[in-house]
Design goal:
With 155 residues, the protein is mainly alpha-helical. Helix content is 75%, strand content 0%. The chain has six helices and no strands. Helix 1 packs antiparallel against helix 2 and helix 2 runs parallel beside helix 6. It starts with a helix and ends in a 5-residue tail after the last helix.
Amino acid sequence: MARLYDGFAHIGGVILAVMTAAVFTQVVLRYLGLVGIDGLEEIPRFLFVWLIMFGAAAAMWRHEHTVLDYFLNRLTPGPRAIVAIGTNLLGIGLFGYLIWLSFTLLPNAGFQTSPGLGLTLDWVFAAVPVGSVMMIVPMLRNIWLEARKAWPRPF
């Protein structure tokens, strides 16, 4: 599973490279007074959402998200685990809600196309439920690890 999430980080790197190349190409073409390529300015915009989701999922797996752990570290292992589990449960609730909202958003986005690329926007908005699932998995793992660390015998 760790290799999968490392792969997500690499996919994010590729997406960032494509976004950079698209923006660089547009800037050079405009600087030279040439006409820009139709739809090229949409590529970074549409890929940005996917970049965020892949990067956030990889960071979630590695525990690299910013966390204020000063007060958390002052707690004993039992309460610390309860707070960590509660935090992850809240995160799962948030991403579950985003998935639920996507059931309304995605079918409607399929009827819209981008003006430059002619791409249906459901491919762009699909990043939200896909990324949410990718982030729920590490949160479930975090809950399991925190529970095992704080209460090793019952599990």
